[in-house]
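ARCHIVE CARD
Drawer: 12
Card no.: 0347
Subject: one protein chain, sequence and derived structure
Cross-reference: see card 0346
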Amino acid sequence: MPTVTTDFPSHLDHVFVDFENVQKIDLAVIGSKGVRFTLLVGPRQTKLAVSMVRKFLQHPDAVQLVQLTSSGRNALDFTVAYYLGRAVAADPNGSFHIVSKDKGYDPLIAHLVGEHIRARRHDSFGTLPFAIPAKVPVPNLPVAVPKPKPRVKAKTQSSILDERTTHVLEHLRKPSTPRPKNKKKLASFLGAYLGRKMTEIEALNLVENLRRAGHLVIGPKGVVTYRI
């Protein structure tokens, strides 16, 4: 099998930009350490920003500019695949990135990944693993001094009752409400009244809340005396 020879160093991040699809270029990537940058331009794209050209001139060994001379369906896509294939052959242990919103590259990426080659398509430069995120200026806002919290009064006996306990207490105070004389039966009665899925322990805790608040007296055998 013939050996493919190129001037690519080994183990780089190779970035291929489909300039027909993505025109917003992160200039910080150009010339970054360990990055080889290839910009592929369509035949009708005859103008580049001065700032981009200046970057290219500053890093001639790390940048490659490819312009197609003729147009055609998917012409630039095939050209990207060609230059990417050359880079893979020269640096099989490198990482390869196509910057394009065109999902037509995804089958190519899937094939490379299946061959254990690190490759990925990016919709923009923002998802490149080595891209430097833009610094967001932090406004010089005044520091808010927290107000001292008001002192909490000691809990009274009535504060022991939660909303649910208060609700069943109002129900038990009605003359028409039956009042079970046994603690276990009272717990079952209250659970059924609330119409909620309650465990036996939760229902017994509800009875205990009423007892602690002084609305019930429970004898040694579980006999309940009401004081409501």
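Annotation on reverse: The CA atoms of residues 15 and 97 lie 5 Å apart. The helical segments are 50-58, 75-90, 106-114, 163-172, 183-194, 200-212.
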